[in-house]
Amino acid sequence: MTEKINDHILNIFPSTTDDNSELLFLLNKTSRILCNWYSNAEILTPLPRKSKFKASLPEESGCDIKTLFEEINSLIYSSFNPSSPGSLAHLDPPPLSISIVGDLIAGALNNNLLAEELSPSISLLEDQICKWFSKKLGFSENSGGIAASGGTLNNLNALVTARFISGLSSDPDAAFIVSEDAHVSFNKCGRILGLNESNILSVETDNEGRMIVSKLENEIDKLINSGKKIFAVIATLGTTIRGSIDPLNKISHLCRDKNIWLHVDGSIGGIYAIGKYKISDMRYINQANSITINPQKILGVTKTSSLLLVNNIESLKRTFQTGLPYVDSSLEVLNRGELGVQGSRPAEIIKLWLGLRVLGSKGINKILDQSIDKKNLFLKKLDTNKYDVFTGPLHIISFIPKNLNRQETDKWTLITKKFLLENNFMISRPFYKGRYFLRIVFGNFNTEESHILKLTNLLNQKI
Ligand SMILES: *Cc1c(COP(=O)(O)O)cnc(C)c1O
User: Fold this and answer.
1) With left for phi above 0 and alpha for psi between -120 and 50, is residue 259 left, alpha or beta?
2) Does the pLDDT at position 9 exceed 90?
3) Which residues line ligand 1 (CB under 6 A)?
């Protein structure tokens, strides 16, 4: 096959008669390019210095294999490189090897999680993995869940459900409550749900970035007095800027007293609930009605991998069941396209399943513990006489220099972010409480002690 590199692909689809040597060649060649890319991840910068990539567009004739691989190569080497040990900007860790295989299998099978008859084994797998997670969280016997393409979609799945179950689907006075440090996806959800901004209430956080429960209580009363009907309170388990955790115990009590759906946005921290690392209040997570968990954000399961778990699976069924008139349905069969907003869905569960199988509890704990250890090492080595540091119990940290005014901080963060990138460290610059911060996410398994020491040295010298 190698000598035919100037040719066009003969078998546009996998052959059902020959031995598929051409497909094997394509897979082999792609695998070699990718493995090479990984092998060079330390030398390559987190972001390409100069991108040579040009988006070529379809032409009259299909292109030959040689050109195709030149373009694939250019695409890969012009990509963000999460495997660089200095890639510490976002919740985008390097991929688990087995998860890459999982994506390949999902693509090759091309099954559809819309309907049981289009994905018999994978529908079962998704159901079982969701139940496994739910049990670990301490949810009820009737619990279960659904995978969706990302935390935003699962937060939406949860809010649509909460609103439907409370009978407020078409009520313009329907309202929900988040903390001011909650993720922006809730603003998006509010718009999709057709709510006015005054129906999305954000409660102040304390100086640890946690929702203030007394303020939540006041807001609930105020909203009710003004004629609004609250269908959900959202507690964040791991805020995006500093990894803070809202007080689940008190919030869940309040929601129970007032009979309000509690959704936990555990897009970042939810996965810690199945690990050994002790986080106060984590044991109250089973008091939630629903929770979003994003294994894509820390375990390295390739994007996208997100689950919505609910204490009672009937809530998803009631909300999203429409019947699928074009699919042969019987009463015993649950078509998983009727448990959430998405219709056709890829078999994303395969890579999560394989990741969990390969890691086991030990492997999961190792990844989670390492993330915390790395943050703690960074904190120990950073000169905290020079910096104000903002962090919760998780692996995310935001910081700014002490004694600079807002304008100076904005400028300093911009310059320092650029300076660090020139030194192969990519960190982020979030806007939070009216000013820019620098932020590091310690979720990259390739980052070692030596890298962290180099980073703190650079920062300690910087001011
Ligand atoms: C990332 C994030 C989300 C959204 O998840 P996506 O997978 O990016 O859609 C929601 N909530 C929190 C707290 C997050 O950090």
Assistant:
1) left
2) no
3) 91, 150-152, 155, 183, 185, 236, 240, 265, 267-268, 294, 306
